């Protein structure tokens, strides 16, 4: 029995046991991390998407309300200026073009910052607060 085992193989196994243990531990840790990380990443993305959707929905409601109100105003002095109407339509158009599905071709963070900036601009033109009442309301 002892003749079947080569002394060099035994010594090599002893010297490489730490390396083998590290490789096995890395593979196990990577597998577990991938399984748990995918779930956590999905939930984080889902909740962040809901937060962005609520913010855009708020902006869209405000913009649409001003546009509809302007159409129904019968008095000329109550109507909004052409410049303000164009800015309202620009914000509405940007929100309409915001992707509804996950896409690698769109930089949603840049688009979101553009929408926020244009919304703040139209709020300044309307002389109303640009504060979003939902900011900071969601916590993870």
Task: Describe what you observe in this structure.
There is one protein chain. The protein is an all-alpha fold and 140 residues long. It is 72% helix and 0% strand. It contains 3 helices and no strands. The protein has helices spanning 7-72, 82-97, 108-126. The longest helix has 66 residues, at 7-72. It is rod-shaped. The mean pLDDT is 83.
Keywords summarizing the entry:
3 helices, 140 residues, rod-shaped, mainly alpha
Give a quick rundown of the structure.
It contains three helices and no strands. It is an all-alpha fold and 140 residues long.
The tally of beta strands, per DSSP, is 0
Main pleated-sheet profile: none
Quaternary status of these chains? Answer: single chain
Order of helices and strands: HHH
Structural category:
mainly alpha
* Low-confidence residue ranges: none
Q: What share of the residues does DSSP label as strand, in percent?
A: under 5%
Radius of gyration: 29 Å
Overall body shape: rod-shaped
Q: How many H/I helical runs? A: 3
**End-to-end distance:** 61 Å
Mean pLDDT: 83
Helix content: over 70%
Mind sketching the topology for me?
Elements: H1 7-72, H2 82-97, H3 108-126
Helix pairs in contact: 1-2, 2-3
């Amino acid at each position: 029995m002892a003749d079947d085992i080569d002394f060099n193989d035994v010594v090599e196994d002893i010297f490489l046991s730490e390396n083998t243990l590290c490789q096995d531990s890395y593979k196990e840790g990577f597998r577990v991390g991938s399984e748990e990380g995918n779930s956590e990443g999905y939930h984080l993305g889902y909740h962040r998407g809901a937060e962005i959707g609520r913010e855009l929905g708020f902006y869209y409601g405000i913009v649409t309300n001003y546009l509809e109100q302007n159409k129904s105003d019968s008095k000329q002095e109550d109507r909004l200026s052409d410049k303000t109407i164009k800015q309202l339509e620009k914000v509405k158009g940007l929100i309409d073009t915001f992707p509804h599905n996950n896409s690698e071709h769109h930089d949603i963070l840049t688009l979101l910052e553009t929408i926020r900036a244009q919304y703040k601009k139209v709020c300044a033109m309307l002389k109303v607060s640009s504060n979003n009442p939902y900011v900071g309301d969601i916590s993870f």
